[in-house]
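Fold this complex.
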Amino acid sequence: MQPSPPTRPALRARYDRRRELVVDTAARVFAERGYDQTSVQELTEAMGLASGGLYHYFESKQHLLIEICDQLMDPLLEQARELLAPDGAPDEQLRALVRLWVAHVVEHRGHMLVFQQERHLIERGDEWRNVRDSRKQFERLVAGVLERVHREDAVLPDDGRLALAALLGMVNHTVQWYRPGGRLTPLDVADGYVDLLLARSAR
Amino acid sequence: MQPSPPTRPALRARYDRRRELVVDTAARVFAERGYDQTSVQELTEAMGLASGGLYHYFESKQHLLIEICDQLMDPLLEQARELLAPDGAPDEQLRALVRLWVAHVVEHRGHMLVFQQERHLIERGDEWRNVRDSRKQFERLVAGVLERVHREDAVLPDDGRLALAALLGMVNHTVQWYRPGGRLTPLDVADGYVDLLLARSAR
DNA sequence: TCGAACTTCGAACGACCATTCGGTAGAGTC
DNA sequence: GACTCTACCGAATGGTCGTTCGAAGTTCGA
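Structure:
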C-alpha cells in the first residue's frame, strides 16, 4: 500500500522535510554503494530509521529510486523551460541553459550518479515512463537550442546532432570528476563547454 | 576454488573460445538488465548452460564482472601505448588516439555499459585494482597527448584539464547513443570530437 | 487532559539467489 | 577398449533481503 502524507496541515511540513531527508540520503548512499548493493537496513540506518520506517514514506525501495530520478529531472526541465520561454539570441540561450544544467548536475551529484547507474532500469517498465519522458523532453530542449545556433551561425559540426551528443556527454560526465571547492566553478565549467561548441564562430 | 584451463593443449582452444562466449554474453546481458538484477540462472540460460556451468569458467559472478572490465581496458591501454610510442605531431597523435578509442568503445558496447554502471564497485576493493589502474593509466595517456597539443598550439581551453574532462565525457558517452549502421561511422564521430577540441587552431 | 492521528520500531516471513557438489556423458590418449 | 581428463548438469543449501504488521511511543487539536 502506498503511504500518504498526514491530513492535518500542521504536520505536513515536517513530513515533507523528513521525506526529503530520506530521498537525499538515499541518493548519496545509492551513488556510493549502488542501488542493489545497498540493503534497506543499511539505507535506513544512514537516515537514523529502522528498516520498517522507510515504508512510512515510500511504497517500496524501487519507488524511492524513482523519486530520486524525478527530483533530478523534473525541476531541471521546468527551469529550462522558463529560461527558454522568452526569445533571445541562440548562443546566449545556449550559454544560459548549459550554466543552469551544470549547476543542477553539480548540486545533485548523488541523484545524477544514481540516474546514470540505473539507466537500464529507467529504459524499461511503466513506472519509469515519467523519468524517461522528462529526459527526452530535456534533450529536445537542448537539441532545439543547438539547432537555432546552427541555423544562425552555421558553425556547429554536422548540423548539430553530433554537437548534441557531445554536449550531453560532457555535461553528464561532469559529475564524475567535478568537486566543489576546486579551481573551477560550475560557471567556468559550463562556459568552457559552450566555448568548445562555439569556438569556430566569431567571438 | 578458481577454475583452471585444461592441461591438455588440444583442448585449450575450445576452452578459451567457450570462455570468451561466456564473457561476451555476460557483457551483453549485464548491460541490458544490470549486473545485480541478472541472476546466474538467467545469465547461463542466455549462454546455453545450466547454472552450475558458469563455475567451470569463473570462480564467481563477480570475477566474471572483473573479467569483462579487464577485457575492455587492457587491450585499449595496450593499443594506445603502441600508437603513442613513436614520436609525432601532437594533434595527429590526438586524432589517431581518439579514433582508436571511439572504435574500441563502439565495438565493446556491452563491456562499456557494464563498466559505467558498476563504477561504484570498481572504485573500491582490492579485486578491482587492475581495472582502476588501467583506467588511470589510459587517462594519463590522453592527458599527456592533450598537454602536448596545448604546449604546441596553445589553443585548448584552460591548459587542457577541462579539455581532458570534456573529451572523456564525449567519448565515454558515445556508447549511450551510437548505433552501428547509422549515418555516422566511428571515424566520423572521433574526428568530430577532435575537431571540436582543435577548432581554435588553424585548420 | 483525552483521544485521534501520526511516526517509528523491529521481529518474523517468504522469496530469491549465488554457490556447491556428486553424478554423468563424451572426448582424448595409450 | 579401458582409463582419464574435461565439460556440464541441476537439485540442494545456506544466507540475504525486501516487505509486513502489530505494538509502542509521540504529537496535535479540542
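Residues 9-33 of chain B form the longest helix (25 residues).
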